[in-house]
Amino acid sequence: MSQIRVDQLTKRFGSNTIVDELDLTIEEGEFVVLLGPSGCGKTTTLRCLAGLESPEGGTISFGDKVMYGGPKHADVPSHKRNIGMVFQSYALWPHMKVRDNIAYPLKVRRQKDALRSGAVEKAAEMVDCGALLDRYPSQLSGGQQQRVAVARGLVSEPDLVLFDEPLSNLDARLRDQVRTQIHQLHQRLGFSAVFVTHDQSEAFALGDRLAIMKGGKLEQFETPQRVFDEPASDYVAAFIGMGNKLELTRHADGWRTSNGDRIDLGTRSPERGGVEKVTARLRAADLRLHRAAEEVPQGSVLLHATVVTTEFGGRHHDVLVDVDGEKLTLQADTREHGSWLPTAPEGTPVVVSLRPSDVRVFGEDGWAIADSQSPLQVGDTAGANAR
Ligand SMILES: Nc1ncnc2c1ncn2[C@@H]1O[C@H](COP(=O)(O)OP(=O)(O)OP(=O)(O)O)[C@@H](O)[C@H]1O
């Protein structure tokens, strides 16, 4: 195994540029997740890596072997790229038993030694399917079929394993099981992987690094922790769960919401010099609900709001509140608020509090305004966002 490099990859369909001069490096043994909304070019990027699409430009190299592009205009066919693939639709051969499905990549590559030395059985055991080898796919549950597909993807010990939304056809319980299994297999076997998803929890759970795509380009390429703590842009923040958004305007004494509540942005406040408007983003879990301003802890920012809707969510209520026309969601502890909140009519005045350190700030161009006190600025880490 070795480093996989994608340089300036461009793929068009007709006049639409779907992958736009994309640079991406996958270190040996690294699990990279391509994350982004529908249509941003994730699957097309994966298919270019697999050799299933012919790009219009750029280079793809696996170690020192050029798979696409380069001075010799290489375009190595898919079956010669030494990759494993796991698809959303499982894509098992219905007329073949599990044993033959898993063995398929070894047969195509004529890896007779592996076939003889029990690689198929070992791969099936790895995904707890050792007892299913003589069944047909139609005799398996969805979760079992996808585990067989994972075994098939790994059996030939490929340089790179490509996963295209492999969990999205499974119900929630199976999805968690198969996700954990993929995670454990990666930790044990250390294969390099590119995993496409639009599910942020899947991405956070599996990725060594997350490549967040927008319009065929990388918006941020960093560790899950870093993306969670310091989303590079408003687009990334919204996509990874910072759904709450407040438009703020600079006043003589600091930043204020449209209804006049003051928010101290502390070290994330942009310098003067033309920046008069910013967007603040927050996670639902970072907002607290109170009935009166006196309940707000010291050091927190206070917003005046009204209740819009309340839904029971078990330990908490999901509450939608209105701050002068801007809607925020938050989770209110059932033990603390269960006695009054479910019957509070729409329009009930409440107070919402937040800690300034939980606020992330974005300029009018959409890019993050970094914490001026942080030694590590957004985009400073090795291989960081691709701006
Ligand atoms: N063969 C094709 N011909 C024309 N357009 C295509 C083709 N394949 C993909 N596209 C278009 O390219 C864009 C990106 O598709 P792609 O499947 O890469 O997105 P994605 O980020 O993986 O989205 P999803 O999560 O919905 O699969 C879409 O607008 C899609 O309609």
TrEMBL record:
Residue intervals of the ABC transporter domain: 4-240
InterPro entries listed in its UniProt record: AAA+_ATPase, ABC_transporter-like_ATP-bd, ABC_transporter-like_CS, ABC_transpr_MalK/UgpC-like, Mo/tungstate-bd_C_term_dom, P-loop_NTPase, Transp-assoc_OB_typ2
This protein's UniProt keywords: ATP-binding, Cell membrane, Membrane, Nucleotide-binding, Translocase, Transport
The keyword RNA-binding is assigned to this record: no
Gene3D superfamilies in UniProt: P-loop containing nucleotide triphosphate hydrolases
UniProt-listed PANTHER family: MALTODEXTRIN IMPORT ATP-BINDING PROTEIN MSMX (PTHR43875), TREHALOSE IMPORT ATP-BINDING PROTEIN SUGC (PTHR43875:SF15)
Annotated protein name in UniProt: ABC transporter domain-containing protein
